[in-house]
Amino acid sequence: MNKNKKTICVYCSSSNHLPEKYYILSRELGCKIGQNGYNMVYGGTTVGMMGIIANSALENGSEVIGVIPEKIESFGLKHPSLAKVIVTKDMRERKATMEKYADIFVAAPGGFGTFEEIFEIIVAKQLGYHDKPIIFLNFDNYYSNLFKMFDTVYENKFAKQETRDLYYIAENTDNIFNYIKTYKPAEFTLKW
């Protein structure tokens, strides 16, 4: 991997049964990752948004690392054309490995796995384990209802209002790269 390029970790859906607009978004995101000079780390498969983003990033000059658990690899879903593929024992090891390679985290539309992955990264930032950019790609208001739930969390003081600064909400792919280019870590007090 080219150490001079930052690496974007992308969390997203592996489903092949989504509305076409999400696959169009995937091609656009992968293309812009490459065109903006970033490498990528992701879940290592060929399916769904994951596979399309990886292929598009590769076609546009990114080196891509795939991190795939043994169980998922056994289904024959491992991407064959990546710079590096790391096979992990389980999902927990997969997440830790992806985090290790990542300089930036992007949650594109996804399901429960995507939620779990990005929440863990937000909590790690909240507790001071990293200060890397975290971005939700709120394409077509995909995450808007989740952000309403976040508002309930803040209103009821389960998290401080400043926690909003732990992550950025991008409405489109251009917003992602504009944010990354100007990113400065915010200073936070511990949650207690």
What does this 3D model show about the protein?
This protein has 192 residues and is α/β, with parallel strands linked by helices. The chain has one domain (7-181): Rossmann fold. Helix content is 42%, strand content 16%. Helix 1 (20-35) packs parallel to helix 2.
Q: What summary fits the major beta sheet?
A: 7 strands, parallel
- Domains (count): 1
Structural class assignment: alpha/beta
Rounded to the nearest angstrom, the radius of gyration is 16 Å
What shape does the CA trace take?
A: globular
Major beta sheet, strand line-up: 4-3-2-1-5-6-7
The CATH class turns out to be: Alpha Beta
Measured distance between first and last alpha carbons: 39 Å
Outline:
The chain has helices at residues 20-35, 48-59, 70-73, 91-101, 112-126, 144-155, 173-182, and strands at residues 7-11, 39-42, 64-69, 84-88, 104-107, 134-137, 168-170. The chain is α/β, with parallel strands linked by helices and 192 residues long.
What features would you highlight for this structure?
Rossmann fold; 7 strands; 7-stranded parallel β-sheet; 192 residues; single chain; alpha/beta; 42% helix; globular
Topology of this protein?
Layout: E1 7-11, H1 20-35, E2 39-42, H2 48-59, E3 64-69, H3 70-73, E4 84-88, H4 91-101, E5 104-107, H5 112-126, E6 134-137, H6 144-155, E7 168-170, H7 173-182
Parallel strand pairs: 1-2, 1-5, 2-3, 3-4, 5-6, 6-7
Helix pairs in contact: 1-2
